[in-house]
Design a protein that fits this description.
Blueprint (H helix, E strand, L loop, with lengths): L7 E2 L2 E5 L2 E5 L8 E6 L7 H6 L3 E9 L2 E6 L12 E8 L1 E4 L6 E4 L15 E4 L10 E2 L2 E4 L4 H6 L2 E3 L5 E3 L5 H11 L7 E10 L1 H10 L1 H5 L3 E7 L4 H20 L4 E7 L1 H14 L13 H9 L3 E3 L5 E9 L8 H9 L2 E4 L2 H5 L12 E2 L2 H4 L9 H25 L6 H18 L9 H12 L12 H8 L4
Parallel strand pairs: 9-16, 14-19, 14-20, 15-16, 15-17, 17-19
Antiparallel strand pairs: 1-7, 2-3, 3-6, 4-5, 4-7, 5-6, 8-10, 11-18, 12-13, 18-19, 20-21
Helix pairs in contact: 3-4, 6-7, 8-9, 12-13, 12-14, 13-14
Length: 470
Protein backbone atom coordinates (compact mmCIF):
# COMPACT_ATOMS: atom_id res chain seq x y z
CA UNK A 1 0.00 0.00 0.00
CA UNK A 2 1.37 3.46 -0.89
CA UNK A 3 1.75 6.31 1.60
CA UNK A 4 0.46 9.11 -0.64
CA UNK A 5 -3.26 9.96 -0.84
CA UNK A 6 -5.19 7.76 -3.22
CA UNK A 7 -7.53 9.44 -5.76
CA UNK A 8 -11.31 9.22 -5.35
CA UNK A 9 -13.58 8.34 -8.27
CA UNK A 10 -17.08 9.72 -8.71
CA UNK A 11 -17.94 8.07 -12.02
CA UNK A 12 -20.57 5.62 -10.75
CA UNK A 13 -22.28 3.91 -13.69
CA UNK A 14 -24.85 1.92 -11.73
CA UNK A 15 -25.78 0.19 -8.50
CA UNK A 16 -27.18 -3.32 -8.97
CA UNK A 17 -27.82 -5.79 -6.19
CA UNK A 18 -24.72 -5.87 -3.95
CA UNK A 19 -22.52 -4.43 -6.75
CA UNK A 20 -21.36 -0.98 -7.83
CA UNK A 21 -19.81 -0.22 -11.24
CA UNK A 22 -17.17 2.52 -11.16
CA UNK A 23 -15.97 4.15 -14.39
CA UNK A 24 -12.85 6.18 -15.09
CA UNK A 25 -10.77 4.25 -12.54
CA UNK A 26 -7.27 3.26 -13.54
CA UNK A 27 -4.49 1.26 -11.88
CA UNK A 28 -6.93 -0.87 -9.85
CA UNK A 29 -6.38 -4.59 -9.22
CA UNK A 30 -8.53 -7.53 -8.24
CA UNK A 31 -9.39 -7.96 -4.55
CA UNK A 32 -8.42 -4.37 -3.75
CA UNK A 33 -10.16 -2.92 -0.72
CA UNK A 34 -12.26 0.19 -1.34
CA UNK A 35 -13.73 2.93 0.87
CA UNK A 36 -17.13 4.10 -0.34
CA UNK A 37 -18.59 7.46 0.66
CA UNK A 38 -22.25 7.65 -0.33
CA UNK A 39 -23.37 10.97 1.15
CA UNK A 40 -25.52 12.84 -1.37
CA UNK A 41 -25.19 16.50 -2.17
CA UNK A 42 -27.85 18.59 -0.44
CA UNK A 43 -28.64 15.87 2.11
CA UNK A 44 -28.83 16.74 5.78
CA UNK A 45 -25.70 16.16 7.87
CA UNK A 46 -27.30 13.25 9.77
CA UNK A 47 -28.37 11.57 6.54
CA UNK A 48 -24.89 11.94 5.03
CA UNK A 49 -23.35 10.40 8.15
CA UNK A 50 -25.77 7.47 8.01
CA UNK A 51 -24.85 6.81 4.38
CA UNK A 52 -21.07 7.01 4.74
CA UNK A 53 -18.33 4.59 5.71
CA UNK A 54 -19.16 1.60 3.55
CA UNK A 55 -16.52 -0.65 2.14
CA UNK A 56 -16.06 -2.93 -0.82
CA UNK A 57 -13.83 -5.36 -2.65
CA UNK A 58 -12.90 -5.28 -6.33
CA UNK A 59 -14.40 -8.24 -8.16
CA UNK A 60 -13.32 -7.42 -11.70
CA UNK A 61 -11.65 -4.76 -13.83
CA UNK A 62 -11.96 -4.08 -17.55
CA UNK A 63 -10.14 -1.09 -19.03
CA UNK A 64 -11.34 1.84 -16.87
CA UNK A 65 -14.43 0.08 -15.44
CA UNK A 66 -14.24 -1.55 -12.01
CA UNK A 67 -16.83 -3.86 -10.44
CA UNK A 68 -17.00 -3.47 -6.65
CA UNK A 69 -18.97 -5.66 -4.24
CA UNK A 70 -20.21 -3.63 -1.26
CA UNK A 71 -19.62 -5.45 2.02
CA UNK A 72 -22.37 -3.67 3.96
CA UNK A 73 -24.91 -3.93 1.13
CA UNK A 74 -26.17 -1.24 -1.24
CA UNK A 75 -29.43 -0.39 0.56
CA UNK A 76 -30.13 3.35 0.37
CA UNK A 77 -27.25 3.98 -2.01
CA UNK A 78 -27.52 6.18 -5.09
CA UNK A 79 -25.08 7.03 -7.86
CA UNK A 80 -25.48 10.69 -6.95
CA UNK A 81 -22.73 12.09 -4.72
CA UNK A 82 -20.92 8.76 -4.31
CA UNK A 83 -17.13 8.61 -4.09
CA UNK A 84 -14.99 5.47 -4.20
CA UNK A 85 -11.36 5.36 -3.05
CA UNK A 86 -9.27 2.26 -3.75
CA UNK A 87 -6.62 1.39 -1.17
CA UNK A 88 -4.13 -0.27 -3.48
CA UNK A 89 -4.11 -3.40 -1.27
CA UNK A 90 -6.48 -6.31 -0.49
CA UNK A 91 -8.72 -6.45 2.56
CA UNK A 92 -6.69 -7.22 5.67
CA UNK A 93 -7.70 -8.04 9.24
CA UNK A 94 -5.70 -7.90 12.47
CA UNK A 95 -4.48 -11.29 13.64
CA UNK A 96 -3.27 -12.61 16.96
CA UNK A 97 -4.45 -13.92 20.31
CA UNK A 98 -6.63 -10.84 20.87
CA UNK A 99 -9.36 -12.68 18.93
CA UNK A 100 -9.64 -15.41 21.56
CA UNK A 101 -12.71 -15.03 23.75
CA UNK A 102 -14.36 -12.54 21.37
CA UNK A 103 -17.78 -12.68 19.71
CA UNK A 104 -18.01 -10.73 16.45
CA UNK A 105 -20.22 -10.41 13.41
CA UNK A 106 -19.31 -11.83 10.04
CA UNK A 107 -17.04 -8.87 9.27
CA UNK A 108 -15.15 -9.13 12.56
CA UNK A 109 -16.94 -6.24 14.29
CA UNK A 110 -17.59 -6.87 18.01
CA UNK A 111 -20.98 -8.15 19.18
CA UNK A 112 -19.89 -8.70 22.79
CA UNK A 113 -19.74 -5.05 23.82
CA UNK A 114 -15.94 -5.04 23.78
CA UNK A 115 -13.55 -2.82 21.82
CA UNK A 116 -12.56 -3.54 18.24
CA UNK A 117 -10.19 -6.48 17.88
CA UNK A 118 -6.61 -5.25 17.49
CA UNK A 119 -3.49 -7.21 16.69
CA UNK A 120 0.21 -6.70 16.33
CA UNK A 121 0.00 -7.72 12.67
CA UNK A 122 -2.52 -7.85 9.84
CA UNK A 123 -3.03 -10.49 7.18
CA UNK A 124 -4.94 -10.51 3.89
CA UNK A 125 -8.36 -12.09 4.16
CA UNK A 126 -8.09 -13.85 0.78
CA UNK A 127 -5.21 -15.98 2.06
CA UNK A 128 -3.59 -18.74 0.01
CA UNK A 129 -4.02 -22.52 0.03
CA UNK A 130 -1.15 -24.41 1.64
CA UNK A 131 1.60 -25.44 -0.76
CA UNK A 132 1.46 -29.25 -1.03
CA UNK A 133 5.25 -29.37 -0.91
CA UNK A 134 5.22 -27.81 2.56
CA UNK A 135 2.40 -29.94 3.97
CA UNK A 136 2.82 -32.53 6.65
CA UNK A 137 0.35 -35.47 6.46
CA UNK A 138 -2.49 -35.13 8.99
CA UNK A 139 -1.82 -37.22 12.08
CA UNK A 140 -2.88 -37.50 15.73
CA UNK A 141 -6.55 -37.13 16.69
CA UNK A 142 -8.80 -34.22 17.49
CA UNK A 143 -11.28 -35.77 19.92
CA UNK A 144 -14.78 -34.29 19.90
CA UNK A 145 -16.27 -36.07 22.92
CA UNK A 146 -18.96 -37.46 20.58
CA UNK A 147 -18.84 -41.25 20.46
CA UNK A 148 -20.18 -41.72 16.94
CA UNK A 149 -17.38 -39.53 15.58
CA UNK A 150 -14.48 -40.44 17.86
CA UNK A 151 -15.06 -44.20 17.59
CA UNK A 152 -15.98 -44.66 13.93
CA UNK A 153 -14.89 -41.55 11.97
CA UNK A 154 -11.98 -40.21 13.98
CA UNK A 155 -10.91 -36.68 13.04
CA UNK A 156 -7.18 -36.13 12.39
CA UNK A 157 -5.33 -32.89 13.03
CA UNK A 158 -5.07 -31.06 9.73
CA UNK A 159 -7.98 -32.96 8.15
CA UNK A 160 -11.05 -31.49 6.48
CA UNK A 161 -14.09 -33.57 7.42
CA UNK A 162 -17.53 -32.15 6.49
CA UNK A 163 -20.90 -32.82 8.11
CA UNK A 164 -23.65 -33.54 5.56
CA UNK A 165 -27.14 -32.86 6.82
CA UNK A 166 -30.58 -31.84 5.63
CA UNK A 167 -33.19 -29.34 6.77
CA UNK A 168 -34.75 -30.22 10.11
CA UNK A 169 -31.79 -32.19 11.46
CA UNK A 170 -29.72 -30.90 14.41
CA UNK A 171 -26.56 -30.12 12.43
CA UNK A 172 -26.09 -26.69 13.99
CA UNK A 173 -26.51 -28.15 17.47
CA UNK A 174 -23.99 -30.87 16.66
CA UNK A 175 -21.52 -28.33 15.24
CA UNK A 176 -21.77 -26.22 18.38
CA UNK A 177 -21.30 -29.30 20.57
CA UNK A 178 -18.17 -30.28 18.63
CA UNK A 179 -16.81 -26.75 19.04
CA UNK A 180 -17.59 -26.77 22.76
CA UNK A 181 -16.03 -30.16 23.55
CA UNK A 182 -13.18 -30.80 21.10
CA UNK A 183 -9.63 -31.20 22.43
CA UNK A 184 -6.15 -32.06 21.18
CA UNK A 185 -5.00 -33.79 24.34
CA UNK A 186 -2.67 -31.67 26.47
CA UNK A 187 -1.44 -29.52 23.58
CA UNK A 188 -2.48 -25.86 23.05
CA UNK A 189 -5.87 -25.87 21.38
CA UNK A 190 -8.58 -23.40 20.35
CA UNK A 191 -11.68 -23.23 18.15
CA UNK A 192 -12.75 -20.76 15.47
CA UNK A 193 -16.50 -21.02 14.82
CA UNK A 194 -17.84 -19.25 11.72
CA UNK A 195 -21.63 -19.36 11.46
CA UNK A 196 -23.29 -18.14 8.27
CA UNK A 197 -26.91 -17.27 7.60
CA UNK A 198 -28.18 -17.87 11.15
CA UNK A 199 -31.48 -16.64 12.52
CA UNK A 200 -31.29 -14.55 15.69
CA UNK A 201 -32.65 -17.49 17.71
CA UNK A 202 -30.01 -19.87 16.32
CA UNK A 203 -27.25 -17.33 16.97
CA UNK A 204 -28.38 -16.97 20.59
CA UNK A 205 -28.39 -20.77 21.00
CA UNK A 206 -24.86 -21.05 19.60
CA UNK A 207 -23.58 -18.31 21.89
CA UNK A 208 -25.14 -20.05 24.89
CA UNK A 209 -23.62 -23.44 23.97
CA UNK A 210 -20.17 -21.95 23.47
CA UNK A 211 -20.24 -19.57 26.41
CA UNK A 212 -17.94 -21.73 28.54
CA UNK A 213 -15.28 -22.16 25.84
CA UNK A 214 -15.43 -18.45 25.04
CA UNK A 215 -15.03 -17.49 28.69
CA UNK A 216 -11.94 -19.68 28.95
CA UNK A 217 -10.29 -17.80 26.07
CA UNK A 218 -10.28 -20.77 23.68
CA UNK A 219 -12.87 -19.60 21.14
CA UNK A 220 -13.26 -17.12 18.30
CA UNK A 221 -16.94 -16.78 17.36
CA UNK A 222 -18.03 -15.10 14.12
CA UNK A 223 -21.80 -14.84 13.65
CA UNK A 224 -23.19 -13.86 10.26
CA UNK A 225 -26.95 -13.40 10.57
CA UNK A 226 -29.49 -14.15 7.87
CA UNK A 227 -30.52 -10.47 7.67
CA UNK A 228 -26.93 -9.27 7.15
CA UNK A 229 -25.78 -8.21 3.65
CA UNK A 230 -25.07 -11.14 1.38
CA UNK A 231 -21.46 -10.09 0.78
CA UNK A 232 -20.69 -10.47 4.48
CA UNK A 233 -21.50 -14.17 4.16
CA UNK A 234 -18.79 -14.55 1.53
CA UNK A 235 -16.15 -12.80 3.65
CA UNK A 236 -16.96 -14.54 6.99
CA UNK A 237 -15.23 -17.91 6.35
CA UNK A 238 -12.18 -16.14 4.93
CA UNK A 239 -11.78 -14.01 8.05
CA UNK A 240 -12.19 -17.14 10.20
CA UNK A 241 -9.47 -19.01 8.30
CA UNK A 242 -7.12 -16.02 8.32
CA UNK A 243 -7.42 -15.76 12.11
CA UNK A 244 -7.01 -19.54 12.47
CA UNK A 245 -3.89 -19.67 10.28
CA UNK A 246 -2.10 -17.14 12.47
CA UNK A 247 -3.10 -18.88 15.69
CA UNK A 248 -1.88 -22.19 14.27
CA UNK A 249 1.26 -21.41 12.30
CA UNK A 250 2.51 -18.37 14.20
CA UNK A 251 1.23 -19.03 17.74
CA UNK A 252 1.72 -22.82 17.63
CA UNK A 253 -1.84 -23.86 18.52
CA UNK A 254 -3.94 -26.69 17.15
CA UNK A 255 -7.00 -24.91 15.77
CA UNK A 256 -10.35 -26.47 14.91
CA UNK A 257 -12.36 -24.36 12.45
CA UNK A 258 -16.09 -25.15 12.32
CA UNK A 259 -17.93 -23.44 9.43
CA UNK A 260 -21.61 -23.67 8.63
CA UNK A 261 -23.88 -23.53 6.85
CA UNK A 262 -21.71 -23.80 3.73
CA UNK A 263 -24.87 -24.10 1.64
CA UNK A 264 -25.78 -20.56 2.77
CA UNK A 265 -22.32 -19.45 1.70
CA UNK A 266 -22.74 -21.05 -1.74
CA UNK A 267 -26.16 -19.45 -2.18
CA UNK A 268 -24.60 -16.06 -1.42
CA UNK A 269 -21.96 -16.79 -4.05
CA UNK A 270 -24.72 -17.67 -6.51
CA UNK A 271 -26.54 -14.41 -5.78
CA UNK A 272 -23.45 -12.32 -6.45
CA UNK A 273 -22.74 -14.31 -9.60
CA UNK A 274 -26.26 -13.61 -10.88
CA UNK A 275 -25.85 -9.90 -10.13
CA UNK A 276 -22.65 -9.92 -12.18
CA UNK A 277 -24.53 -11.46 -15.10
CA UNK A 278 -22.30 -14.54 -15.26
CA UNK A 279 -23.36 -17.62 -17.20
CA UNK A 280 -24.65 -20.12 -14.63
CA UNK A 281 -23.58 -23.75 -14.33
CA UNK A 282 -25.25 -26.59 -12.37
CA UNK A 283 -28.36 -25.49 -10.46
CA UNK A 284 -27.52 -21.85 -11.37
CA UNK A 285 -24.35 -21.91 -9.24
CA UNK A 286 -21.31 -20.24 -10.82
CA UNK A 287 -18.95 -22.41 -12.81
CA UNK A 288 -16.11 -21.60 -10.43
CA UNK A 289 -17.92 -23.03 -7.35
CA UNK A 290 -15.47 -25.94 -7.12
CA UNK A 291 -12.36 -23.73 -7.17
CA UNK A 292 -13.94 -21.27 -4.74
CA UNK A 293 -14.71 -24.01 -2.21
CA UNK A 294 -11.22 -25.43 -2.70
CA UNK A 295 -9.72 -22.00 -1.96
CA UNK A 296 -11.34 -22.28 1.49
CA UNK A 297 -10.96 -25.96 2.30
CA UNK A 298 -7.33 -26.21 1.20
CA UNK A 299 -6.25 -23.56 3.70
CA UNK A 300 -6.32 -26.16 6.46
CA UNK A 301 -3.58 -28.64 7.28
CA UNK A 302 -0.17 -28.89 8.91
CA UNK A 303 3.00 -27.12 7.77
CA UNK A 304 6.39 -28.79 7.88
CA UNK A 305 8.55 -27.34 10.65
CA UNK A 306 5.71 -25.59 12.49
CA UNK A 307 3.98 -27.04 15.54
CA UNK A 308 0.35 -25.98 15.00
CA UNK A 309 -2.38 -27.26 12.70
CA UNK A 310 -5.70 -26.12 11.20
CA UNK A 311 -8.44 -28.77 11.18
CA UNK A 312 -11.65 -27.98 9.31
CA UNK A 313 -15.21 -29.21 9.90
CA UNK A 314 -17.54 -27.56 7.34
CA UNK A 315 -21.24 -28.16 7.96
CA UNK A 316 -23.69 -28.09 5.06
CA UNK A 317 -27.31 -28.93 4.37
CA UNK A 318 -28.22 -30.97 1.30
CA UNK A 319 -31.30 -29.40 -0.36
CA UNK A 320 -33.97 -32.10 -0.48
CA UNK A 321 -31.49 -34.52 1.10
CA UNK A 322 -29.79 -34.86 -2.32
CA UNK A 323 -26.14 -35.82 -1.82
CA UNK A 324 -25.55 -35.25 -5.56
CA UNK A 325 -26.47 -31.56 -5.18
CA UNK A 326 -23.51 -29.38 -6.29
CA UNK A 327 -22.58 -28.20 -2.79
CA UNK A 328 -22.16 -31.63 -1.11
CA UNK A 329 -20.96 -33.18 -4.37
CA UNK A 330 -18.09 -30.73 -4.86
CA UNK A 331 -17.32 -30.67 -1.16
CA UNK A 332 -16.91 -34.44 -1.23
CA UNK A 333 -14.30 -34.18 -3.99
CA UNK A 334 -12.15 -31.78 -1.97
CA UNK A 335 -12.45 -33.17 1.55
CA UNK A 336 -11.31 -36.41 3.19
CA UNK A 337 -14.54 -38.15 4.06
CA UNK A 338 -17.88 -37.06 5.49
CA UNK A 339 -20.13 -37.37 8.54
CA UNK A 340 -23.70 -37.95 7.34
CA UNK A 341 -26.74 -37.28 9.51
CA UNK A 342 -29.75 -39.58 9.12
CA UNK A 343 -33.38 -38.48 9.10
CA UNK A 344 -34.41 -42.04 10.07
CA UNK A 345 -32.28 -42.00 13.22
CA UNK A 346 -33.54 -38.53 14.05
CA UNK A 347 -37.12 -39.79 13.75
CA UNK A 348 -36.25 -42.50 16.30
CA UNK A 349 -35.10 -39.83 18.75
CA UNK A 350 -31.40 -40.63 18.41
CA UNK A 351 -28.96 -37.77 19.00
CA UNK A 352 -26.65 -37.24 17.28
CA UNK A 353 -28.28 -39.00 14.31
CA UNK A 354 -24.97 -40.01 12.70
CA UNK A 355 -25.32 -42.72 10.03
CA UNK A 356 -22.18 -44.79 10.63
CA UNK A 357 -22.47 -46.69 7.33
CA UNK A 358 -22.73 -43.51 5.25
CA UNK A 359 -19.96 -41.75 7.18
CA UNK A 360 -16.24 -42.10 6.56
CA UNK A 361 -12.96 -40.58 7.70
CA UNK A 362 -10.31 -41.40 5.11
CA UNK A 363 -7.52 -40.33 7.46
CA UNK A 364 -8.75 -42.25 10.51
CA UNK A 365 -5.83 -44.69 10.36
CA UNK A 366 -3.46 -41.73 10.66
CA UNK A 367 -5.17 -40.54 13.84
CA UNK A 368 -6.20 -43.69 15.72
CA UNK A 369 -4.69 -46.90 16.99
CA UNK A 370 -1.61 -47.79 19.08
CA UNK A 371 0.29 -44.76 20.36
CA UNK A 372 -2.46 -42.37 19.32
CA UNK A 373 -5.77 -43.43 20.88
CA UNK A 374 -6.05 -47.03 22.11
CA UNK A 375 -4.55 -50.24 20.75
CA UNK A 376 -7.95 -51.80 20.01
CA UNK A 377 -9.52 -48.69 18.44
CA UNK A 378 -9.16 -49.51 14.74
CA UNK A 379 -10.19 -53.15 15.18
CA UNK A 380 -13.25 -52.18 17.21
CA UNK A 381 -14.24 -49.56 14.65
CA UNK A 382 -13.90 -52.05 11.77
CA UNK A 383 -15.90 -54.73 13.60
CA UNK A 384 -18.63 -52.29 14.64
CA UNK A 385 -19.02 -51.02 11.08
CA UNK A 386 -19.13 -54.55 9.67
CA UNK A 387 -21.73 -55.58 12.26
CA UNK A 388 -23.87 -52.55 11.44
CA UNK A 389 -23.72 -53.56 7.77
CA UNK A 390 -24.87 -57.05 8.77
CA UNK A 391 -27.72 -55.55 10.78
CA UNK A 392 -28.81 -53.47 7.81
CA UNK A 393 -28.88 -56.57 5.58
CA UNK A 394 -30.91 -58.44 8.21
CA UNK A 395 -33.37 -55.55 8.55
CA UNK A 396 -33.84 -55.30 4.78
CA UNK A 397 -34.36 -59.09 4.59
CA UNK A 398 -36.94 -58.86 7.38
CA UNK A 399 -38.83 -56.24 5.39
CA UNK A 400 -39.00 -58.68 2.47
CA UNK A 401 -39.87 -61.96 4.18
CA UNK A 402 -41.15 -60.78 7.55
CA UNK A 403 -39.25 -60.41 10.81
CA UNK A 404 -40.64 -63.73 12.12
CA UNK A 405 -38.91 -65.66 9.32
CA UNK A 406 -35.43 -64.39 10.19
CA UNK A 407 -32.83 -66.82 11.50
CA UNK A 408 -31.26 -66.61 14.93
CA UNK A 409 -28.08 -64.92 13.74
CA UNK A 410 -30.02 -62.25 11.85
CA UNK A 411 -32.02 -61.51 14.99
CA UNK A 412 -28.79 -61.16 16.95
CA UNK A 413 -27.59 -58.60 14.44
CA UNK A 414 -30.79 -56.63 14.95
CA UNK A 415 -30.20 -56.82 18.70
CA UNK A 416 -26.68 -55.50 18.11
CA UNK A 417 -28.02 -52.58 16.07
CA UNK A 418 -30.35 -51.57 18.91
CA UNK A 419 -27.56 -51.97 21.47
CA UNK A 420 -25.17 -49.91 19.36
CA UNK A 421 -27.75 -47.20 18.92
CA UNK A 422 -28.44 -47.01 22.65
CA UNK A 423 -24.95 -47.56 24.09
CA UNK A 424 -22.66 -45.96 21.51
CA UNK A 425 -24.44 -43.56 19.13
CA UNK A 426 -26.94 -41.90 21.46
CA UNK A 427 -25.66 -39.38 23.97
CA UNK A 428 -26.70 -36.17 25.67
CA UNK A 429 -26.53 -32.81 23.94
CA UNK A 430 -24.08 -31.55 26.55
CA UNK A 431 -22.38 -34.88 27.27
CA UNK A 432 -18.68 -35.16 26.49
CA UNK A 433 -17.52 -38.79 26.53
CA UNK A 434 -13.87 -39.72 27.07
CA UNK A 435 -12.51 -42.01 24.37
CA UNK A 436 -11.98 -44.85 26.89
CA UNK A 437 -15.67 -44.81 27.74
CA UNK A 438 -16.63 -44.59 24.06
CA UNK A 439 -14.63 -47.71 23.12
CA UNK A 440 -15.91 -49.58 26.19
CA UNK A 441 -19.45 -48.83 25.04
CA UNK A 442 -18.62 -50.23 21.60
CA UNK A 443 -17.45 -53.47 23.26
CA UNK A 444 -20.69 -53.53 25.25
CA UNK A 445 -22.68 -53.49 22.01
CA UNK A 446 -20.41 -56.08 20.35
CA UNK A 447 -21.00 -58.42 23.28
CA UNK A 448 -24.52 -59.07 21.93
CA UNK A 449 -23.00 -61.00 18.99
CA UNK A 450 -21.62 -64.55 19.20
CA UNK A 451 -17.86 -64.97 18.95
CA UNK A 452 -18.06 -66.57 15.52
CA UNK A 453 -19.40 -63.27 14.12
CA UNK A 454 -16.53 -61.15 15.51
CA UNK A 455 -14.27 -62.04 12.61
CA UNK A 456 -12.45 -58.68 12.50
CA UNK A 457 -11.20 -58.85 16.09
CA UNK A 458 -8.11 -60.83 17.19
CA UNK A 459 -8.94 -63.76 19.46
CA UNK A 460 -6.68 -62.48 22.26
CA UNK A 461 -8.48 -59.14 22.19
CA UNK A 462 -11.87 -60.86 22.50
CA UNK A 463 -10.58 -62.97 25.39
CA UNK A 464 -9.24 -59.87 27.14
CA UNK A 465 -12.39 -57.80 26.72
CA UNK A 466 -15.25 -60.33 26.74
CA UNK A 467 -13.69 -63.33 28.49
CA UNK A 468 -12.55 -66.74 27.23
CA UNK A 469 -16.05 -68.13 27.39
CA UNK A 470 -17.08 -66.14 24.30
Amino acid sequence: MTDWPRPSYTGIARVRGPLVVVTGAGDVGWDEFADIHVGREGAAAEERAALSDRHGLVLDTARDRVLVQVLEGTGGMSTEGMRVTFSGAPLRVPVGTAWLGRVCDGMGQPLDGGPPVLGGAAAPVAGVPLNPVHREPPAEPVLTGISAIDALTTLARGQKLPVFSRAGLPHLELAAQIAAQATAGDEPFCVVFAAMGLTHADAAAVRETLEGRSASGELVLLLNLADAPVIERIVTPRIALTVAEHLAFQEGRHVLVVMGDMTSYCEALREVSAARGEIPARRAYPGYLYSDLASLYERCGRVRGRPGSVTLVPVLTMPGGDITHPVPDLTGYITEGQIVLSADLHALGVYPPVDALESLSRLMRKAAGPGRTRADHLDVAAQTTAALAGARRARELGELIGAGALGGTDRLYLDFERACRQALISQGRTESRPLEQTLDRAWQALATLPRRELTMLPGEMIDDRLGRGR
